[in-house]
């Protein structure tokens, strides 16, 4: 793609400059939400929020707070743009994304505002690569209107216990059914596949259960294909908060600890499967 | 049926299912007084495997009171329950298998650490009893060795090798790769190993013989034997009669019965590689008049109340080996397996399906049906069992 369509700014003209000593602190968390190409970036003084959506039914947000970055300079209150996430991730891992301790890729990410490309300076072992990714008109992210006052049921689990369940889920099942209840079975994942059905039950007093606040028995079905990408976030995370609201919307919040021990969050919202409502 | 097993035995159960998955696509499960039997047979019916887990293997074992329950299911669905062996070892404390006759489901419950409970309700089909009739005690030759010796021996053969040839005399065992008849011996790579009698825990050779059988099933058994550390015995006679590989300890028995290449067929293959399949037909009649040889494997058939109307016997008259007769199978299974077979089975296999005799119902009508069925190679679907 010709870069000449978007003109080159001077160094001091950038409205957003974000630097990281270790690019993995950004690339890892972006991988946790990379299931579609279009990613909406929204930078405020608090940090960076990246949003990816699918089928108007699923939304994933990654939050990277300003203090994760070694430098985070913003000349406007809000800076928004949209880029191809796959391309961005390819650029961020252009040096191979080595996990060898002591070998780190440093990143300086710059943006000069509407119509300009996103410029990445990547450096590893004295070698610098400059990438320019054309930006797109930012779309308006969906508002799932998921507010904590409408939350019916909430549990916080250690991710390890869910990781095992998700790795074993019967993928021939079109849906994942989630039951949360103040009484038995408390927290249940169910699949209905070719060979029969399977239930995974977590008791509320399990050591893996950090918080159990269920007020009402709720059973909702979610499309397996929509939830599948969230396993990437699950794999990275150490804790996960599962919430459902009165409409059956699902919120999954993952607490992710990066290489430097700092904490970031990834959040998935998913609509319940329509058919379940009709039953 | 209700059985509960704990700790390390859960892994043994998982390994048994894993090794049966190397034999066939379906798992035949039958709880009897003596324990829980798990069986599998390959699509050409040239290999049969059976695990018997005795009641002592389980913490609790209850066979169904009416003794009539038996079922089969895709082995993949059972494998999925025990998918991750490492997590089984790490977290599963107890496994319970019970029959939910109301819902017609087999329920496998895994009790894991931290109170996590995994419940799998598996659908199954009613089926006939699958039983091979063999008499390993009367085999002329018996070799028994630690699994390590077998594993180290088999390791030398390339994974692509289909059949292995074993010959014995009073002092030694030779294993070599079996060459296809149409292979050019001057071009093919030959691998040959010689093991002395001292390497074996038990070495009893009463007649020098030379047999050829499929390696894949042996590998399947070794997966199990190695993890359980149990010695593997091999019972065999002359070429053409089955070889029985077995593992046992106080709470379990496993027998893998494999067809061996008959010398007769060998000869015929040399003479006429493209033998017409129909050549094999008269033999079916011969068999009918034969006495049941003790080593023959029989697929016992018994009608179950749950069966669909129509002939339900899964009997296969044995057919001598020829280059093309590996298709001798049930008419009822012909159609559904046709496709798999083309994918999974190399054409022109020489063994297969040969030594499965049948315990035929007395009714001559049924006998006729079996013979007729034999000639029908593309089946009519009347006999087709109901798929789930």
From TrEMBL, chain A:
Compartments, as annotated in UniProt: Nucleus
Main subcellular location: nucleus
Cited InterPro entries: Cell_cycle_checkpoint_Rad1 (IPR003011), DNA_clamp_sf (IPR046938), Rad1_Rec1_Rad17 (IPR003021)
Gene Ontology CC terms, in alphabetical order: checkpoint clamp complex
Biological-process GO terms, alphabetical: DNA damage checkpoint signaling; DNA repair
Keyword terms, alphabetized: DNA damage, DNA repair, Nucleus
Keyword Kinase belongs to the record: no
Pfam families in UniProt: Rad1 (PF02144)
SUBUNIT field: Component of the toroidal 9-1-1 (RAD9-RAD1-HUS1) complex, composed of RAD9A, RAD1 and HUS1. The 9-1-1 complex associates with LIG1, POLB, FEN1, RAD17, HDAC1, RPA1 and RPA2. The 9-1-1 complex associates with the RAD17-RFC complex. RAD1 interacts with POLB, FEN1, HUS1, HUS1B, RAD9A and RAD9B. Interacts with DNAJC7. Interacts with RHNO1; interaction is direct.
Similarity-based family: Belongs to the rad1 family.
Function field: Component of the 9-1-1 cell-cycle checkpoint response complex that plays a major role in DNA repair. The 9-1-1 complex is recruited to DNA lesion upon damage by the RAD17-replication factor C (RFC) clamp loader complex. Acts then as a sliding clamp platform on DNA for several proteins involved in long-patch base excision repair (LP-BER).
Protein name: Cell cycle checkpoint protein RAD1
Organism from which the protein derives: Astyanax mexicanus (Blind cave fish)
From TrEMBL, chain B:
Pfam families in alphabetical order: Rad9
GO CC entries: checkpoint clamp complex
Keywords: DNA damage, Exonuclease, Hydrolase, Nuclease, Nucleus, Phosphoprotein
Cell compartments where the protein resides: Nucleus
Swiss-Prot/TrEMBL catalytic activity: Exonucleolytic cleavage in the 3'- to 5'-direction to yield nucleoside 5'-phosphates
Region (Disordered): 302-351
Residue spans of biased composition, Acidic residues class: 333-342
Key word Hydrolase present: yes
GO molecular function: double-stranded DNA 3'-5' DNA exonuclease activity
GO BP annotations listed: cellular response to ionizing radiation; DNA repair; DNA replication checkpoint signaling; mitotic intra-S DNA damage checkpoint signaling
SUPFAM superfamilies: DNA clamp (SSF55979)
Tree of life domain: Eukaryota
Keyword check for Hydrolase: yes
Function: Component of the 9-1-1 cell-cycle checkpoint response complex that plays a major role in DNA repair. The 9-1-1 complex is recruited to DNA lesion upon damage by the RAD17-replication factor C (RFC) clamp loader complex. Acts then as a sliding clamp platform on DNA for several proteins involved in long-patch base excision repair (LP-BER).
PANTHER family on file: CELL CYCLE CHECKPOINT CONTROL PROTEIN RAD9A (PTHR15237:SF1), DNA REPAIR PROTEIN RAD9 (PTHR15237)
Similarity-based family: Belongs to the rad9 family.
This protein's name: Cell cycle checkpoint control protein
């Amino acid at each position: 793609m010709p870069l000449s369509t978007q003109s080159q700014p001077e160094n001091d003209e950038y409205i957003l400059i974000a630097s990281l000593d270790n690019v993995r602190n950004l690339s890892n968390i972006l991988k946790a939400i990379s299931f579609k190409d279009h990613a909406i970036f929204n930078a405020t003084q608090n940090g960076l929020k990246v949003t990816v959506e699918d089928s108007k039914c699923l939304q994933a947000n990654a939050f990277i707070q300003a203090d994760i970055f070694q430098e985070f300079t913003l000349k406007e209150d809000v800076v928004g743009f949209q880029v191809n996430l796959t391309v961005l991730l390819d650029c961020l891992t252009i040096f191979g994304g080595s996990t060898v301790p002591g070998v780190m890729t440093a990143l300086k990410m710059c943006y000069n505002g509407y119509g300009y490309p996103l410029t990445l300076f990547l450096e590893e072992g004295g070698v610098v690569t400059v990438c320019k990714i054309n930006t797109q008109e930012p779309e308006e992210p969906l508002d799932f209107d998921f507010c904590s006052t409408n939350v019916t049921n909430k549990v916080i689990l250690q991710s390890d216990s869910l990781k095992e369940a998700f790795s074993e889920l019967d993928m021939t099942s079109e849906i994942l059914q989630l039951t949360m209840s103040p009484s038995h079975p408390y927290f249940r994942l169910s699949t209905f596949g070719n060979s029969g059905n399977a239930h995974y039950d977590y008791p509320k007093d399990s050591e893996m259960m950090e918080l159990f606040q269920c007020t009402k028995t709720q059973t909702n079905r979610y499309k397996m294909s929509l939830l599948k990408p969230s396993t990437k976030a699950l794999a990275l995370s150490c804790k996960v908060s599962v919430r459902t609201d009165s409409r059956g919307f699902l919120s999954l919040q993952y607490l992710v600890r990066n290489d430097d021990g700092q904490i970031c969050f990834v959040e998935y919202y998913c609509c319940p499967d329509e058919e379940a409502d009709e039953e | 049926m209700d059985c509960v097993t704990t700790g390390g035995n859960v892994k043994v159960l998982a390994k048994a299912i894993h090794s049966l998955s190397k034999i066939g696509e379906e798992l035949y499960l039958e709880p009897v007084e003596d324990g829980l039997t798990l069986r599998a047979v390959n699509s050409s019916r040239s290999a049969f495997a059976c695990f018997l887990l005795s009641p002592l293997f389980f913490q609790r074992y209850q066979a169904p009171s009416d003794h009539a329950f038996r079922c089969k299911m895709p082995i993949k669905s059972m494998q999925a329950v025990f998918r991750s062996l490492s997590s089984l070892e790490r977290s599963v404390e107890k496994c319970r298998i019970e029959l939910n006759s109301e819902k017609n489901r087999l329920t496998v419950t895994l009790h894991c650490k931290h109170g996590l409970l995994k419940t799998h309700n598996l659908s199954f089909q009613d089926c006939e009893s699958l039983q091979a009739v063999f008499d390993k005690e009367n085999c002329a030759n018996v070799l028994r060795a630690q699994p390590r010796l077998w594993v180290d021996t088999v390791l030398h053969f390339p994974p692509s090798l289909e059949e292995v040839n074993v010959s014995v005399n009073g002092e030694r065992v030779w294993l070599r790769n079996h060459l296809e008849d149409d292979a050019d011996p001057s071009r093919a790579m030959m691998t040959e190993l010689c093991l002395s009698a001292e390497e074996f825990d038990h070495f009893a050779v009463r007649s020098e013989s030379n047999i050829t059988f499929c390696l894949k099933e042996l590998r399947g058994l070794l997966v199990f034997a190695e993890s359980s550390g149990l010695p593997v015995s091999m019972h065999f006679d002359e070429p053409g009669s089955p070889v029985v590989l077995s593992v046992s300890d106080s709470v379990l028995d496993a027998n893998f019965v494999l067809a061996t290449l008959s010398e007769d067929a060998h000869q015929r293959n040399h003479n006429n590689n493209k033998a017409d399949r129909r050549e094999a037909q008269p033999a079916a009649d011969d068999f009918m008049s034969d006495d049941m040889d003790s080593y023959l494997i029989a697929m016992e058939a018994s009608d179950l109340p749950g069966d669909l109307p129509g002939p339900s016997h899964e009997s296969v008259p044995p057919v001598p080996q020829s280059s093309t007769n590996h298709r001798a199978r049930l008419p009822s299974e012909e159609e559904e397996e046709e496709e798999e077979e083309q994918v999974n089975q190399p054409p022109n296999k020489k063994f297969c399906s040969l030594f499965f005799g049948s315990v035929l119902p007395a009714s001559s009508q049924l006998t006729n049906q079996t013979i007729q069925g034999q000639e029908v190679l593309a089946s009519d679907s009347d006999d087709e069992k109901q798929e789930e």
